[in-house]
Structures are given as structure tokens and as C-alpha cells.
User: Fold these one by one.
Assistant:
Number 1:
Amino acid sequence: MYVYDAIDQRMVDERVAQYRDQTRRYLAKQLTDDEFRPLRLQNGLYIQRHAPMLRVAVPYGMLNSRQLRKLADIARRYDRGYGHFSTRQNLQLNWPRLEQVPDILAELAGVQMHAIQTSGNCIRNITTDHFAGIAPDELVDPLVWCELLRQWAALHPEFAYLPRKFKIGVSGSPADRAATLIHDIGLQAQRSDDGAIGFRVLAGGGLGRTPILGQVVREFLPWQHLLTYLEAILRVYNRYGRRDNIWRARIKFLLRAKGLEAFRAEVEDEWHWSKDGPGTLTGAEVERVSRRFTRPVYRRLPDSGELHRQLAASRAFALWHERNVHAHRVSGYRAVTLSLKRRGVAPGDVSAAEMDAIADLAERYGCGEVRVSHEQNIVLADVAAARLHALWLEARALGLATPNVGLLTNIIACPGGDFCSLANARSIPIAADIQRRFEDLDYLFDIGELDLNISGCMNSCGHHHIGHIGILGVDKQGSEFYQVSIGGAQGAHAALGKVIGPAFSADEVGPAVECLIECYLARRDSDAERFIDTVRRIGLEPFKEHVYGKRRSQGTHRVRALATA
Amino acid sequence: MASVVRKGRIESERWQRLDEVRLAALCAGAEAPALAAESVVLIPLGLWLVQRARLACLALRSAVLLNAEDDPSPLLPHLGAVSRIAVHFARFADGRGYSLARVLRQRHGYRGELRAIGDVLRDQLFYLGRVGFDAFELRSDQDPHAGLAALADFSASYQGCSDQPAPLFRRRAA
Ligand code: SF4
């Protein structure tokens, strides 16, 4: 966990003072709505359907117990006692009062947190792998690089009024758990043959109305040049990205319009003058930032025989262990996912009491740190294998031990129509209905790995394009409909899903998902073939047949002719 | 009353924007003596490029006017001979002028006055100052004292920029 120094602290404090004054002037009608909008957005404040929403930055998903308790405290005192973890690893508060936001930001600054650039047309919170620094398959620990990027992006004077929002994701592992292919800039840390660190730089990825996977702009960028090269990309985007049409304003459209080669040439030209200049990173700085991270002290632990006995003795524990416990690079340790996907609770929602409880668990079982995953769960990174069973018992008592990581009910969903003013349809009730239908654990485990994502509109905050099954809320003459796609994937083999056919009404979605699963179970090659593998092997047709054919034969539903383009 | 924040002070001299007819008259040599006494005249880039020889002969203080969408490349060869450039912000939220300023200052080494004009508000001044503007013609409803204060909204910055090319990490080490 990075610990602020005096200058880091001063900057967030000064930001609070600046925003307090801006809020005061807005309330005194000295700033118009239009003038205030980008200021509040760049301090995390949206105006939502029911109330403002404040998005608190959780830089690259890392929180310590003290910060989590502060978030709980804020949720209680300024909100309705809960928060929502988003797919960008941030925490959203749904009911703060605009006048109180400066106070909330001051409370956050007190625990080295902020809401800087969590919204607006600027460089947003940097995201990374929730197993950063502990994953056995990692080539490079991305955390230090993420913090260097955080500092560089924070209050960057040149890029506060970009054509559109700008998201950067960093991965240090070939498995790409940071979804770098769907970011405006994706950075894949690598090591060259002689061990030097560098980054494969991708640009132009993104979901939304026009989902596109990022393209490689530079195969290997030596680490020294990280910041100057990124500035060159951003400058080209800031100068030439479209500003006349909000739906064509992301960098992916610029890249597509120019073509990869021309875009790359332009970036290189822009980079030329700053390359090797003062913005070039130094070993001393990397070292300095690295030293400001607190690191867990690992002990030499025997890989516990006790664990094997416990696994043999309890099937429920074994199921949880299978899904929610992950390998650690240090022998004797594991990472554990506390599932925030339980029936009856919106995906990613967490109450103040749960935040406090998780903070306690992190202190007692980990090193007092948690990570927020883009799958909207919480990860405890450093748990001794011998203590997994005890942790499981406690997590289960808290309702945080649903053994569903990577399974169908680990649904990723945006807040949707219940909260978000942009939504076409609600996502939370759809998630709840699907979770109910697949509650049976034997059935759930039999289905195996499956990512199901729900977005309430084309802005795609629920990343539906990269769900093995993706559900998208669409508006049809004022009522809520849902388009279903299959075949999407995240990670190193990222792919965009394809729509299976006409959209469904809210009560048809659950049955349609059941049909997809029936078809998969009937057609899969073996238990080892995952849903996504079957889709890749046999294509969309059999699934379409099954879903719509069944619908016709039952005669209960009219196929609704909704454009699926 | 609109004011200009410049070099840590509040001034009142705004650069003049003329309509096309008067600009034409100016280039013909007709308007210059009267204007010269008054103030600096903004010459749009296109016109400046065509007429710069003639403008140089007039007893006139002029500034090159750039809009956010202008390509500054034809200006670059003459940059050493230019002492005033204004970048016009049609909307404060159009960020192109920020990169334009940085390119002029840091890539091409422009040393003259760089003035932000148009929709220039107090809340953007700190960043504008960092990217290389050294004068700010505030929109007429803005309080110049608040504008001056805004230049000190932050006492430190991480990134290097036109005002301070060395990023914090290089200064920290020093
Ligand atoms: S996908 Fe749409 S409905 Fe969902 S949170 Fe994003 S903007 Fe709102």
C-alpha cells in the first residue's frame, strides 16, 4: 500500500480547499450549472436520478483497513449506510448531499484518499489486476507503475478538458486480469530478454456503443519513457480527437479515423521532443515510490496438512476453496475473494457494517489491506493457508462467502435504472432473478466458469460486451427490454460478444439465460469445456435455435422484432 | 469590467479584435496611426501569415490570434520574431488550447507573451498558467482578484510542464 508523503497530502488538502470554494460559489449562484459541471465531475460528483452520486477513487483498487473504516463511517454519516463498488475498482456513494461533498472529501483526505478525476473528460482512476504483486503468473509487479501513473495523472494541467473520458489499465501478467484491451490506453508490463522492464502499449480500446479492442501502438516501451510517451498519445488525442460528437469522441474513433500507422507516426512525432527530456523516469524515483509502499512481511509457512483435512471434512468449505481461494506467489499463502454477489443484494453493494467487518478480517487474516476487483468483489491478498478455514467460517457468518467467483452468479452489473439517470433499463432486478434461478450450488458448479455481465445502457459500465453472456438494457417505446449477447470474453483472449437475436422483456431474460445454459450443457464436449469454449466451437446458431425455437414452441411469447444492430 | 491578469498583477489592457473591414483597412495602412495609440490589435493567423511583412512596417502593436482548431505549423518558422500570441477559448471546456500552449512553449520554444482570451474563467487559471499562458484576459463577469488568487490554488504539482519543465521527482531529488 502506498503511503503519502507530505507533498502528496498537501495536494489532496489543497484540492479539497479548492473544491470547497467552488461549491460555495456554485451555491451562491456565482457559477452556472455549466461552469460547475466539469469541476464537480472531476471531484467525483455526478447528478443522478435520485440524488447526487459521489465516486471515490480507490487507486488501482487498493485500500487499507483504516480507509475502509473511514468509508463505512462516511456511508453512515453522509449517506444511507452503504456503498457500491464499481467495475473500475472505485466506491460509489449514492445519496450524498451536494453541500456536504467538500466535508466528505476532507474526511477522505484525512485517510490519504480523494475523488480526483473519478469522472469528467480527464484521465480517470488507473486500474490494475486485483492480484497485482501476489500473482504467481506475474511478470512485473504493476503497483509501483500504477502509483507513478497516478501521480502523473493527478491534476495534470494539460489533460483536464479532453474530448472525452480517458481510462488507463495496467497489467503485469499474461492473463491480463486488468482488461487492458478495453482501455483507452492499455499497458501490459513485460520483461525483455535481458530482464529490463517495459510496456506493450495498446490504445483505442473501449466498450460503449461502439466496442473496440485496443491495438498495439508500441510493442515494447522501456519504462523510462512511460510518462513522456503517454503524454504524447494524450496530446495527439487532445488536439485532434473529435469534440463535435460525444458518441465519436473517445480516442478509439481518432485511431480508427487516422488508421493505426498514421496514428502511431503522429504519436512518435509528438514524442520526439519530450523523449529523454526531464519527464523521463529515473531509477531513483521508481525506487523512492517503491519504498513508500508498505509490504507484507511473509513468514516461512509449511503448506498445511491441516488444510487438506479440513477440505476433506467439509464439502461447503471445499467448494468455497475451489472458487474463492487463489494461488499466491509466496508458498503457504493464498489470496481470498470475499464475494459481494449474494442473492438479494445488488452486485457490488456493501453496507457500512460489512465494510467494518471486512476491515477487521483484513487485519486479522491479512496484512490490513484489501483490493477491490473489477468484478466488484473484495480480495484479501495475504492469507496464511492454515487460516483459510477460520476465515471461511467468519466470512460465511457475514454472508461474504458465496462460493461463486468465476461462476454464473458472480454477476457483474452496473447500478442501472434504479440509480443511474442514463439507464434504459434496470439491471439489479435482472441480476437478482438470475441469481435466484441458479442458486443450487451443484447446478452452478456443474455449469462451471461463466462470466455474466449486465449494463443498463450502451455506456456499458457493466462491461456486457466482454461477458460470456452479456445483457444490455435497451429502451423500446418507453419500456425496458434486454438484448442478450454471447461469446464475449475478458483477459488475454478478450473478445466482444454477439447479439443472439431480438430483445427480451424483463421477465423473459431469466428464462432465456436458462435456455442458453441448457443448450450449453447438452452440447458441451465434456465437463472441461467451458460455456465460452462451446460457443467458440459451435457458434451462435445452436444457441439461437434453442432460445428462440423454444420460445416459439411454447407459444407463450411473441418474438419481438427489435432491431439488434 | 473585464481585466487582465498578467505577471502577478491586474491590468486593464485588452487586446483588440477588429472586424474584417477594419482589419482590411489596417493592412492597407489606413487605420494604423489611430489604433497604434490605443492598444494591441489581434491579427488572425491566416491574415497575419499573408500580411506580416506589411504589418511589420506599420507603427502598430499586434498579436497573432490562434483559435483552438488552428494548425500553428505555418507560424513556427516565424516564432522567434513574434512577441505576442493570443489563444482564443470559444468554450472554457475546450482543452485544445492547453496542448497548443504547451507545444508552442516547450516543443517550439516560444518566449513571448501567451495570452488566453475568450471564455477564460477563474477556475481554469491554475492549469492555464501551468501549460504556458502568462496573461489571462478574464471573461467580463470574472473577479480579477479571484483570478489572481487562483494562480496559487496549488503549492505543488507532480508533472513538469511549461512553467516548470522538471517534474516534482526531479526537483525532490535536487
Ligand atoms: S451502463 Fe448505463 S445505466 Fe449502467 S451505470 Fe453506466 S450509464 Fe448508468
Number 2:
Amino acid sequence: MACVIEKINEIIAPENLVYAKSPLTNDDIMHYCPGCSHGVVQRLIAEVIEEMGIQEQSIGVTPVGCSVFAYKYIDIDWQEAAHGRAPAVATAIKRLMPEKMVFSYQGDGDLAAIGTAETLHAVNRGENIVMLFINNAIYGMTGGQMAPTTLVGQVTSTTPFGRNVDINGYPLKITDLIAQLPGAAYVTRQSVHTAAAVRRAKKAIRKAFEIQRLNCGTAFVEIVATCSSGWKLSPVESNKWMEENMFPHYPLGDLKDSKRADSGLYRIKSK
Amino acid sequence: MAKVSGAVVVDIEKCKGCSLCVEACPTLTLMLNRSVNNRGYHFCYMQIPENCNGCANCSAVCPDSCISVYRLRIVH
Ligand SMILES: Cc1ncc(C[n+]2csc(CCOP(=O)(O)OP(=O)(O)O)c2C)c(N)n1
Ligand code: SF4
Ligand code: SF4
């Protein structure tokens, strides 16, 4: 045993460090429930901003929902928006300060219910912002009510017998709608449930920020996420439930990757 | 032949015992501790430290940024 401890102490040296949280991730203990996807995504945003060296330029817009306090966790500038209005606030910030890197961060209740108008019109105008969309198919913050994205048959506190299409309509694939809009330069759907998925999601977030540099339209990243408290499952069970039930309806991968966006020729906005 | 060996350091007070790292670890290194931190969570720890290869899968899935990973390359 003593020999094992000695060995561990030898390994734990600064020159052997392969991963530590980004210095942009504040030391505050996050208020999220254990296992919540919001924490993983916010860690990735901090890493991307650090790696791109854009800490001073970045402005995030937080929603209403569990991620309302995201501004406490990443050491950049933030603006809180009213429920659903993050894309409108991000539009104003980016238009007034085009040199800034502006992103909105929203849950599905915020982005796809009360904020549907702001979401669709911001993308349709091709606002040069990054929009991050955390789809956990439920209203997490308010106690697990049905969201527009809730799956058919999914039990929530307002659909105790499961979502019934005759009464509640169909789960809204808002990311698929967004991909149809000419203002969208890059639209992708990712998840953060395994290490490989986390690495892909980070690449997608990085790409979205790079696209903002090209000034060629909206970059939209959906993360299919878990809400173990709302779903009433453990975090590990939630990941399994998400794979089995969410992924068939919300398949992962790029929905749109405008080639012209890469060349920067798609639409150059005058400053 | 190069043998890679790793270790993780867990920020015990930040850990909420969600168990996602235990599930993500390919070498069955991690486990939740029987004792709890000051906030009452069973924090994760290296139950079998010899197993760790420093792959950083655990830190990738951690929602609370509690895990730092170290990797040593032993050349024989
Ligand atoms: C104008 C207004 N209407 C309703 C609410 C109540 N409310 C707070 S958060 C929320 C939904 C949050 O769900 P989601 O966006 O999916 O985020 P999550 O908490 O799941 O991350 C609602 C309806 C509010 N705060 N303001
Ligand atoms: S209620 Fe759901 S979305 Fe909100 S912090 Fe808890 S797990 Fe995350
Ligand atoms: S670094 Fe890899 S092998 Fe080591 S504890 Fe983490 S997941 Fe397991």
C-alpha cells in the first residue's frame, strides 16, 4: 500500500497534468442537481473560450431556467435576459459591439416555448451570434412540467399519464426548423453523456464560435441533455433513458453546415 | 515498451456523487466513497489506483469540474 501511495504521489506532479478545469471556470459550487448536463456544457464553453483566447471579447446571455445563474460560473461578461428573450438581447449586443463574441444559452422551455418567436426570428435574420440550446425535454427549474420538446408518452408533472398528442400535440423539433432558415450557417445536435460525446460537443461549440468570426450567420448548437430530477431517475439511468428515448427522436449530428460559411462568402455584413 | 500510468485528484467538497465518472471509467478505477463530504454527498475516489491509465474520460463527463487527471509515461 505504501508503495502505491508513493507511486501516486510521483504521478501527481505538474508536468504530468493532462486535464484540469479551465481557469475561466470559477470556483463556485454549481447549484445544479448532481449529474446535470448544464454543468458539463458550461465547462466546455469555458474551455473553448480559454483555448480561443477570447475571454475579454466574450459576452454570454443567460436565460430563465435552471441555467439562470450560469453567469456565476464562467469568468466572462454576461447579461441576464427575460424568459425566452436571450436571442433578442444577444442580437442587440452583437449589433452594438460587432467585435464581441456573443452567445445565448437557453433551455428548451426558454428557447422553444416562451422564446420561440425570438429564436426563429434571430436565426431568420442571420444574426451573427452563437446560440446554445440545452434540450432536456422538460421544464427543470419549475418542477418538471411538460415542455414543447417532451416526448410522446413521457411522464411529467403536467402529463402524469404521459404526453398525449391528442391533447398536448407533438414534440417540437425546433432545431430541424432552424436548419431550414437561410440565416443559419451551422446547425448541429450533440450530447454530453459519454467522454466521446463530450469531445464531439466541444468541437461543435468551438466550430460555432469560429463561425461567428466569419460573420456569416447564426451558429446553432443543440445539446440533447438529461434532467435527472425532472425525469425522476439517477444520473446514470438518465443517460440510458436519453439514449433509448431521446436519440431516436432527436438524432445526433450536423443538420446544416453551410459550405459557403467556411469560405466566409455566404453573407458579409457591413460593420 | 512504454507503460502509461495515471492518477486523478478529486475536489471532494465540489463532488456531488453523481457517479457519471464511475460509469465512464474504462478501467474500473473509481468508486463512490462510503463516507460523505461536508454537503452529504458520497464523493468519488480511486478505489483501485493501480488501474488508472490517465485517459481523462472521468473528467470529461464530470458536470462539476471536480477531477484533475495526471498521466505518467514510464519507458522501460
Ligand atoms: C415570464 C415567465 N413565465 C414563466 C416563468 C416560470 N419559469 C421559470 S423557468 C421556466 C422553464 C424552464 O425550463 P427550461 O427552459 O427547459 O430550462 P431548464 O430549467 O430545464 O434548464 C418557467 C416556465 C418565468 N420565470 N417567467
Ligand atoms: S432540475 Fe434538471 S435541469 Fe435543473 S439543475 Fe436539476 S437536473 Fe439540471
Ligand atoms: S483517468 Fe481514465 S482510467 Fe483514470 S480514473 Fe479517470 S476514467 Fe478511470
Number 3:
Amino acid sequence: MSIEETEKEIVEEFDMFDDWMQKYEHLIDLGKSLPMISEGEKTDDRLIKGCQSRVWLKSELKNGKIIYTADSDAIITKGMVALMVRVLSDHTPDEIINAKMEFVEKVGLTKHLSPTRSNGLLSMIKQMKMDAVAYKTMG
Amino acid sequence: MNRNRINIPLKLLYLQGKSPLFRIILNFVFPIMTELKTPDISIIDIDKIRADFPILSDKVNGKPLIYFDNGATSQKPIQVIETITNYYKHQNANIHRGVHTLSQEITVAYENARATVQKHLNALYSHEIIFTSGTTESINLVAHSFAKQFLSNGDEVIVTAMEHHSNILPWQMVCEERGALLKVVPINSDGELILEEYKKLLNKKTKIVAVTHISNTLGTINPVKEIIDLAHAQNIPVLVDGAQAVPHTFVNVQDMDADFYCFSGHKLFGPTGVGVLYGKEKWLNQLPPYKVGGGTIKTVSFERTEYADLPLKFEAGTPHIEGGIGLAVAIDYVNEIGLDKIAAYEHDLLEYATGLLQKTDGVKIIGTAKNKASVISFVVEGLHAFDIGTILDQLGIAVRTGHHCTQPLMTHYCIQGTVRAAFAFYNTKQEIDLFIQGLERAIKMLR
Ligand SMILES: Cc1ncc(COP(=O)(O)O)c(C=O)c1O
């Protein structure tokens, strides 16, 4: 599935919910199902510092595609992190660099990305893209 | 079903404004009736008070706002809001400068505001009241001016383990600059200062003690008078951070014998951007100005400047005029209700909420001092404060989550952060019921 197709799928998924409480329930479910980073791998260099919830991000290049694994100590943040991973993981660095991530706004997550929410989500997207740039230049 | 419980008083407020008869019944007959049965709920006229705070009838995320983030900042009564708009509509002029009428009138109003603060803190002189931008600036002023004059290599400054970053960082900075040492009074597991350890820290090298009156995270009310007496026995001055104390208790700086006392207007139902530094005349006279410029001088030449007397020496530049005046109105407002009544009412809320939280599965209260203000921090086993705060926000309930600018305290308790509910006199038990229900719902969702 292309990045855009996944984005579309997520937007449709969230459209099914009437209110934010249900959206949060869905995010919590997503958070619970996210494959976690093992405790030993939650090193400081993988930590994306937010003020309140912490996010860890691991990226590996496999057959020209980047595989992301991520985790957070807060479950709602983890649900949002799961969405980012679902959209961007298993794509080439070029695809990731060019991803518009429009679903974020369409789903109504923008308020969680403002720097003041300080949950590290904005920094996470930046870091995912920076990792892609790094892999691209590495060749 | 429970949302109706909060809707009833709101509806009453509406009616109260409409019908004089209803107002009489509500304000006079009803309190008398209830006083006979249950004295505690008639301590203050809660419906009348809530009507004074416009924001309390707003909705947030489609739900009636329940505002429990009073430790961060308090809401403002209409009297304060109108004072500020009236200032801009009819009073705006610069103070201490002009011969024209507006300038003279606003200068008088501003100086009257200073006198209101003086009376409220029971300071000896009104020139011992310095207007600042808030607690943080007040502490920075003292730390920098005091260090310049009195702190040298090898000296010591004492703070406590429960200080807000605003009462740590200024001292840390001046200590680093001067080669002085920062000493920290530890706390016990209930979140109370260990006075025996404090006594051991006081010595000839100690130059100043900085301590919070009430902890913003734990709610602990510190025995400041005792702390000050112990320091004074060795001629050491004490700065008290009163940011969290002034909204909840009487402060009498002469009785307490504080050398410096700081607070912020915005936590005392007044405007943001204005605060107070009280300092004993003898200390303020010895300190050099911290920032300089217009308004702080007697005479200026390029060779030499003679600084103005107190309080202007510390008030460079055009001050937050409407802030000072608004703060005085907020103080009058609180005094009209009566701080003793406020304290009793809030204590009732605290006990009520504490009892319910203790019964909530998985909740652990952080800060169980014997002497507490209406601030409750807690953690929920296995859950992150951010998640709980996010769900409560969806229900219109505003709480604070995180480390509350007290990271060393979080380290002490080995936690990342807490959820904090801080009650003001406009909060109610019905709101606490809704908060507990919301919390239970959040826990169920997140587990
Ligand atoms: C105990 C304490 N000290 C200082 C401050 C800082 O106050 P302000 O930000 O108004 O300067 C706060 C505010 O949270 C506080 O709770």
C-alpha cells in the first residue's frame, strides 16, 4: 500500500467515529497493539524528548526500505505514534521524505502536534524524515 | 445524569440575575435555611461567587468547564476584568510622569493599589511593596541584587527539595557566578520538610534561606515562621515564595518576620504579568537595583547617578499599571469573602476529594502532609498522567499534568509526573464528583 493509500485508510477509519472520546478509544487500542521497543533498546539516542510523554524511535534499512519501530510511555501518544509508523514504515527514503502527512489534519490530530502539547509527536515526524534523509545520503 | 447536578446551580445563577425576589431568596433566605441544617455549605455564597467568574459558565469540548488548574493560574472575577477594561477606556495615562489630570489620577490609583497590598500582607510601610512582573521576577530580583552585595566564594544558600524551579534556578545561577554552594533541605515521604536536617544545614557560611510557603505540587504548608526563627537566630535572612499561599491563607509578613515575600497576581484572581516583592526596608535599602532605567533615579549625569528611594529604585520603566490596580481589586474581592471562610471552604473540598481519591482503584496521592492546602497531586498505577489529563480534558475538566516545574521533587518520588487538581473557592463538591467519575472513566479506558 502506498503512503497516500494508508493515509486515506486512516482518515476513513476515523470518520466512523462520532466524537473525540471514541477517537481516543481507537487511539488507545492502536497504542496497545503497537509492537514495542524492548526496554534495553530504549536508549537515550532513540529518545525524542517531549515535555510530558516520551517517545522512542528506532529505524532500520531493509531491502531499500525503512522499517520504523516506536514506543511511548503514554498510551494515547503511543496510539498516535502507531499511526505515524503505519503510514511511513516499509517505504523507501524518497517516499518518506516526500510524504505530505495530510491525514494528520484530516483526522483532527493537529492540535496534538502543536509544540505546546509537547508530547514529542512533532519532533517524531521530523526525526522520521531526518532518518530517511540520512539513509538516502548513505546511499 | 450527574451533569444535571451542575446545571442546576447554573440555572439558578441565571434566574438570580433576572429576578430580584429570587435573588433575595437565594442570597438571604436560602443561606439561613441551610445554615440551620448543614453549616459547612453556607460558609460562602457559592452561587453568587460563581456568577462573578464569567469563564465558569463556559463550555469546553462541549462540556461545562470544571476548572481545577488553579495552581497554574486562577480565573478572574468580573470586578477585575472590568477594572482592566475601564482603565483602557477611561483612565489610561502614564504614572509618576505627567502634570495632567489623567496622569495624576492614575498615579494615585496605582499608589493606592500598593497600599492595598501593604495592608493585605500587613507590611509596615507601603514602600516595602515592590511591583514586579510576578513571583519569578521577584525572586530573580532578590537573588541577583542580594548576591551582588552579600554572596561570595564559599558562601552557602539554602533552598528546599520541594521548590518550584523559579525558586531554584535564580539561586543556582548566582551561586555558580559567585562560587557559592546551594544546599537543599530534604523532605520525608509525606512531603514535609525535615526540620532537623534544616537545622544542621544552617551555619556561619549560610547567607540566605529561600523556601516556599506552600508547595505547588504537594500542597504542603511549610512552618515558615519556625523556619524563619531558626535562620534569624543566626542572623540569616529568609525569602518566602508565597505564590501558592496568598490565594489560600492569610499572610502576615510582620508576624511571620519574613525578610522577603513574593507572589504573583494571576494566582490571586488578579491579572497576569503583575506580581509583588515585599522586602523589609532595612534589606531593600541595602540591595542595589536589579534593572535600571526611567523612573528609578533622583539625578542622572554621565558621570554618576543617584537612585530614587524605595520603592521606585526597583521599578525601572513603565510598570504594569492596570495590573497593579486590577490586583488591588482582586485582593478586595478575596477580603470581602474573607480568607478565613475561603480557607475553611477549601479545606472541606480538600478532605472531600482526598476521601474519594483514596477510594479510587489504583490512585496514589503524592503529598500527604498533615498541614495541606487544597492541592492534590496523584499518580495512577500503570498509567501516564498525560493520558489521564487528555481524557479529562475531553470531559471539560482542566487539571495539570506533568512535573509542575518541580523536577527534583519528581526525582525524589521516582515518578515522571503527577495529575494535579488544585481547588479554589469557586469550585464545588459537585464538580469533584464529576471529576472522580471522569477519572474512573479514564482509568477504565486506559487500562
Ligand atoms: C510555588 C511557586 N513558585 C513560583 C511560581 C512562579 O510563578 P510565576 O510564573 O507567576 O512567576 C509558581 C507558579 O507556578 C509556583 O507555584
